[in-house]
Amino acid sequence: MIPVVTSSGAATPHDELDLQVRAALAELDDAAEPAEEDPGLLTLFDAMAGSRLLDIHARRMRDHGRGFYTIGSAGHESNAYVAAALRPTDPALLHYRSGAFFLARSMQAGRTLDDGLRAVLLSMLASTADPASGGRHKVFGDESLAVIPQTSTIASHLPRALGVALSVSRAKRLGVPCRWPADAVTVCSFGDASINHSTAVGALNAAGYSVTQGLPLPLLFVCEDNGIGISVATPSSWVAAAAQRPGIEYLAADGDDPEVAFTAACDAVRTVRRQRRPVLLHLRTVRYLGHAGSDLETAYRPAAEIAAERDRDPLVALARRLGTPSLAARYADIAERVEALADELASTATLDSADVVMAPLAPRVRSTIAEAAVVATPPEDRTPAHSRRRPEDAGPLTLAQSINAALTDAMASRPEMLVFGEDVGRKGGVYGVTRGLAQRFGAARVFDTLLDEQSILGFGLGLGVSGMLPVPEIQYLAYLHNAEDQLRGEAASLRFFSNGSFTNPLVVRVAGLAYQKGFGGHFHNDNAVGVLRDIPGLVLAVPSRPEDAAPMLRSCLAAASAHGQVSVFLEPIALYHEKDLHEPGDRGWLGEYSPEGHIPIGSARVHGDGTDLTIVTFGNGVRMSLRVARRLEAEGIGVQVLDLRWLSPLPVEDLLVAAATTRRVLVADESRHSGGVGEGVLAALVEARFPGRMARVASRDSFVPLGDAANLVLLGEADIEDAARELVAR
User: What distance in Å separates the CA atoms of residue 134 and residue 150, rounded to the nearest whole number?
Assistant: First the structure.
């Protein structure tokens, strides 16, 4: 049993809050007249009281070295009214202060209050039995309750919520399965401070934009406004002003007025469900117990302000509305159950090895991916999709043509697959890679989006978790950087933080890397890939040869379909339309297309059989290295060129086999010297105790300037050739 006061005898803030609630409920009990009980309101009282008592007990556990999370929902319990207005099958992406919503949803689905309390306590205790994350994080999540775990504290889940809402009508239009009912409402809650974040601003903008395009968007935004972000006050009129967006209806309610709050929640849900358009419910709340357990609220808030908020307690307000006796005893009983459950679960198992921790990240079973990569569509059905001329009959293709053909075949065989992004539809992409797809498969499957990379990726995340196979395009690698957290904090982390119960299959096509001629500059020549290699579980594919592009893309799509894998398919722009390798007209950079086959993730390709030197490279470096290899071979230096193809995971086994052949390895890295791919390659060789000689050449630690000045900082053929001769002669 955990004592209610500290060892010094002074009541803690959470104990004070508990005692004040008990006193207020006792006072209401004394004044209450016998009345008929409202079972629905009593259930909401139980959810709100349970959430409050979980927060209080979390602080007590923390005080005594038990429990790992103290950011609570105290003061926000009126979000239970939102849960009551929804159905337990409506997908929910919840703010970390939506504890009462979660408990209310759990009971709405037929579970007991203790079931919900147990689930939250297991999460607080980082238990492997936690149904949300398996002990990896404190989140509200449960597959059977349609609650998608969110780790966001800055509203980065809002773009995903748009994708979830869009998925319902899109799946129905395409006749493909969807995880959610056909009339589902998606709900997404967040805080008042988060409404200022670029992801929230972008998501609200994208929601309004979608409505103006005539798209059904059954999405309920709920801003839980407690007036303060950690220690910084939100101006009282700001949320109302910031929430006013074209195409989004705005409703507001005070959480300590049960009638108004519940009515507003019901009105909001009714509008969204019937009219299939977004509503923002501004739910004014209070915040008790500071931001978290380590937060000393009195350091930045006057005591009078904190005390005044106690008069706006939503739990006491609901008790006043109920007007029935024995609520103090009901609250005390729930408190005893919370403490008993916490004691019962105190010795629960936690994650005990790195392998167990990492198990949900990226299973990538090769045999399963190989099976999923098989194209099931018969050859005769492919001909119409390719405008009556199959690509394998068209002769050698460029890289861009090969990718286009692979996308066409995949779209023909996977009805759940969608391609979208800036300019990918009618125009067919800036470089023509998606040309003809919209005409062949229709605007429901190939469509242009607004110019916002966060929203583009968010659409993909929501569509993927709902059952579709999204293939968004980011027009240039440089444009990805303002949306990287959609990959790091949302896409790649979902499987991990949901213990594999939720996935968002995703293949993000990105046009990138440098060496464009006549169309350069930093935003169109970007060689920064380090941030992508730093994301756990993410696959990073870089096809350089046309004959590799299609089977690599099939592998990414198959891994997404089979395992919910998130992949980035980084396409070297400068190689899109290249035809020649050594001399003009030799057509050495074209490749034959095959509609079948795949390349296992993490497998390299060796060009040549020289025994003097191995050049390890990727992307544009493959073409440069092959040209260098030919010149060196004329001098009697035998070279093999290893195309990594996959930058994450690196093909370490293939690397070691190739390196052992020559015992001399030169890494030709077109990314930057610091933080580039070459660092990982050399580290792999060192860790394997490679006994031979190693060297590296890379692009400079610089942005890429315009025009010929780019050649001064980018890796060039002369750099590779000089380093190769030096290494062989050493």
Answer: 14
Which of 282, 524, 563, 598 is catalytic? The answer is: 524
pLDDT digit string (tens) for 652-690? Answer: 999 999 999 999 999 999 999 999 999 999 999 999 999
DSSP H helices in 156-313: 158-174, 198-212, 238-242, 258-275, 303-309
Half-sphere exposure of 431 (CA within 13 A, CB side): 26
Q: pTM above the 0.85 mark?
A: yes
Query: What is the tens place of the pLDDT at every residue in 354-404?
Result: 999 999 998 889 988 888 888 656 566 777 888 878 999 888 999 999 999
The radius of gyration of the chain's CA atoms, rounded to the nearest angstrom, is 29
- Please name the helix (run of DSSP H) or strand (run of DSSP E) that holds residue 7, with its range, or none: none
Helices marked H in 125-177: 158-174
Q: Cβ distance 562 to 368 under 8 Å?
A: yes
- Is the per-residue pLDDT at 6 higher than 70? no
Cα end-to-end distance, the chain, whole Å: 72
pLDDT score, position 677: 97
Mean pLDDT confidence for 602-617:
97
| pLDDT greater than 50 at residue 306 | yes
CA distance 530 to 540: 11
Distances (CA, A) of 250 to 27, 239, 245, 268: 37, 11, 8, 9
Mean pLDDT of the chain: 93
439 φ/ψ angles, rounded to the nearest 5 degrees:
-70, -35
Q: b vs e for 357-385, b when ≥16 Cβ sit within 10 Å of the residue's Cβ?
A: eebbebbbeeeebbebbebeeeeeebeeb
pLDDT of 413-452, one tens digit each? 999 999 999 999 999 999 999 999 999 999 999 999 999 9
β-strand pairing of 92-93 with 147-148: parallel
Helix then strand count (H, E) for the chain reads 27, 20
In the three-class reduction of DSSP (H, G, I as helix; E, B as strand; rest coil), residue 63 is classed as helix
Measured in residues, the chain has a length of 730
Which amino acid would we find at residue 171? A
Tokens of 429: 């992409």
655 bridge partner residues? none
Contact criterion met (CB below 8 Å) for 654 and 604: yes
For 706, other C-beta atoms within 10 Å of its C-beta total 12
Q: What pLDDT score was predicted for residue 376?
A: 55
Work out the number of other CB atoms within 10 angstroms of the CB of residue 29.
Answer: 16
Is-contact 599 548, C-beta < 8 A? yes
Task: Please name the residues in contact with 8: beta carbons below 8 A apart, sequence gap of 6 or more.
Answer: none
CA distances to 14, 103, 180, 404 from 139, rounded to whole Å, are 21, 13, 21, 40
Q: Up-side HSE of residue 209: CA atoms within 13 Å toward CB?
A: 15
Place of tokens 């103006």: 212
User: For the sheet containing 92-93, what is the strand order?
Assistant: 147-148, 92-93, 186-191, 219-225, 279-284, 249-254
524 counts as catalytic? yes
Residue 56 Cα distances to 42, 48, 98, angstroms: 21, 13, 15
Residues 419 and 411: beta-carbon distance below 8 Å = yes
519 versus 543: the higher-pLDDT residue is 543
pLDDT of amino acid 519:
65
**10 Å Cβ neighbour count for 564?**
20
The CB-side HSE value for 187 (13 A sphere, CA atoms) comes to 36
Helix 158-174 to helix 198-212 angle, to the nearest 10 degrees? 30
